[in-house]
Amino acid sequence: FNGEILAPLNVEGDRHPSAWSNGEVATTPGFKEAFRQFSEGGWQGVLHPVEYEGQGLPKLIATPCIEMLNSANLSFALCPLLTDGAIEALLTAGTEEQKRLYVPKLISGEWTGTMNLTEPQAGSDL
Q: What is the pLDDT of residues 97-113, one digit of tens each?
């Protein structure tokens, strides 16, 4: 998956980056399909608890999976990275109701996590 699907998308991403136009985001060709395959393969849930539809594997197993994903296509890998962060935040500080509602949808790829920053001193760089 990493070598045959994600790595070739680096060139496509350079040639056709995501863009905002007329109130819609156009993603790089191939990213949507790759994310579907990533989700269907169960990769988002490798280290997350079985009770929330993850695989419950140890971090020792998840770490090389994440490293291969990062080295194949960092632009793609940022979405699963942020989703892992959202899952970890919910598992650490969420209520049981929040965990039941959000975590399975994040693990399945139905929803993804985001990072939202407010840094007024960063100007247009952010």
A: 999 999 999 999 999 99
**Domain extent listing, the chain:** 2-113
* Residue at token pair 């680096």: 10
Q: Look at residues 114, 113, 115, 106 and name the one whose alpha carbon lies nearest to residue 43.
A: 106
Task: Please give the CATH number for the structural domain made up of 2-113.
Answer: 1.10.540.10
Region label for 17, one of left (φ > 0), alpha (ψ between -120 and 50) or beta (otherwise): beta
Spatial contact of 22 and 38, defined as CB atoms under 8 Å apart = no
- pTM beyond 0.85: the answer is yes
What are the Cα distances from residue 89, in Å, to 18, 54, 66, 124?
Answer: 28, 15, 18, 28
pLDDT digits (tens, 9 = 90+) for 2-48: 999 999 999 999 999 999 999 999 999 999 999 999 999 999 999 99
